[in-house]
């Protein structure tokens, strides 16, 4: 956690709000990287996509990087993690830009909601359950999200997308928009074995779309060193997906769930927590990926 000198010379920890105020004065920390759009995905639910995507977004923005989080999951867990709890069907979502209400589509700027001067979100709600159906008549549906984000791409240092656990057209559209695809994998048997199916889908996308070439990274999550299955699963990931594996292994820790329930950054909730250490480490790793020399 960054510190500053107090009036008496003692060091005082900076809160997230302190960091935002300091960066407002000093100017934001521009991120020059080829990995601009980061998509968190997996076909399996319960692996921690929303937790990691929202925490990485908060961490990156606290460092002064202008960050946009897009929630594509109708369950809206990433939205709730940022404090959006009253998400009824009138709350604008990405569907209002892709499909619109009636015949009118909203500009994407109209659905972006500011959380802090460095963090904004396009929240989700249950209406996103209908996005898949509404996209079906569009023969270019898989490329719609990429086209939508193109004009605003340079306004942000990071665009982070949280997807739902399925092989839907909506998720495929997110994968096609990705500069970096982060496959969050819980360290358990079903999650690890399910990766094969996802990689087969990605291989098909590479055959169907010549320009589909995201940087793919598998992020081991919910690791508990006390569990034999977790150790076996991590070993399998290293053996089978070693070329894709992130350096950071995110450990299972209750502090992350508790911070989520309070819509708080985990490193502010408990800076000494293993969850805090892992989120800081993962964010640093992702910020370094693709950095322009």
Low-pLDDT windows of residues = 1-13
Through-space gap between termini: 26 Å
Described by strand count, sense and barrel closure, the largest sheet is: 7 strands, mixed
Give helix % range.
25-40%
Oligomer kind: single chain
Radius of gyration: 19 Å
Strand order, largest beta sheet = 5-6-4-7-3-8-9
Order of helices and strands: EEHEHEHHEEHHEHEHEHHHH
Query: Rough shape?
Result: globular
- What is the number of E strands? 9
Broad structural category: alpha/beta
In DSSP terms (H or I, runs of 4 or more residues), the helix count works out at 12
- Roughly what is the average pLDDT, rounded to an integer? 87
Strand content: 5-15%
Keywords:
globular; seven-stranded mixed sheet; 12 helices; two-stranded antiparallel ribbon; alpha/beta; 293 residues
Mind explaining what this structure looks like?
The protein is of the alpha/beta class. The protein is built from 12 helices and 9 strands. The chain has helices spanning 16-26, 49-62, 77-81, 95-98, 131-135, 144-149, 169-177, 189-208, 228-241, 254-261, 266-269, 274-288; strands at residues 3-5, 11-13, 37-41, 67-71, 113-116, 119-122, 158-162, 180-186, 215-221. The longest helix is centred in the last third of the chain and has 20 residues, at 189-208. The chain starts with a strand and ends in a 5-residue tail after the last helix. The model is unreliable at 1-13 (pLDDT under 50).
């Amino acid at each position: 956690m960054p510190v500053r000198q107090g009036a008496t010379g003692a060091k005082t920890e900076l809160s997230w709000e302190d960091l935002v105020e300091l960066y407002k004065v000093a100017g934001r920390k521009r991120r020059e990287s080829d990995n601009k759009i980061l998509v968190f995905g997996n076909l399996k639910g319960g692996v921690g996509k929303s937790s990691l995507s929202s925490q990485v977004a908060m961490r990156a923005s606290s460092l002064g990087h202008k960050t946009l989080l897009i929630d594509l999951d109708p369950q809206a867990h990433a939205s709730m993690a940022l404090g959006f709890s009253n998400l009824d069907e009138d709350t604008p979502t990405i569907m209002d830009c892709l499909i619109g209400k009636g015949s009118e589509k909203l500009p994407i700027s109209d659905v972006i909601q500011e959380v802090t001067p460095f963090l904004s979100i396009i929240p989700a709600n249950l209406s996103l359950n209908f996005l898949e159906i509404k996209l079906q008549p569009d023969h270019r549906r898989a490329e719609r999200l990429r086209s939508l984000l193109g004009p605003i791409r340079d306004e942000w240092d990071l665009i982070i997308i949280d997807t739902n656990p399925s092989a839907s057209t909506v998720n495929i559209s997110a994968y096609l928009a990705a500069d970096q695809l982060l496959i969050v994998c819980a360290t358990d048997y079903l999650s690890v074995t399910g990766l094969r199916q996802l990689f087969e889908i990605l291989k098909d996308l590479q055959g169907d779309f010549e320009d589909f070439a995201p940087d793919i990274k598998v992020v081991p999550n919910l690791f508990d060193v006390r569990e034999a299955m977790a150790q076996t699963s991590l070993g399998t990931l290293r053996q089978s997906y070693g070329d894709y594996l992130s350096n950071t292994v995110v450990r299972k820790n209750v502090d992350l769930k508790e911070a989520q329930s309070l819509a708080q950054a985990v490193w502010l909730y408990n800076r000494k927590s293993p969850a805090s250490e892992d989120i800081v480490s993962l964010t640093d790793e992702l910020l370094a990926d693709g950095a322009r020399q």
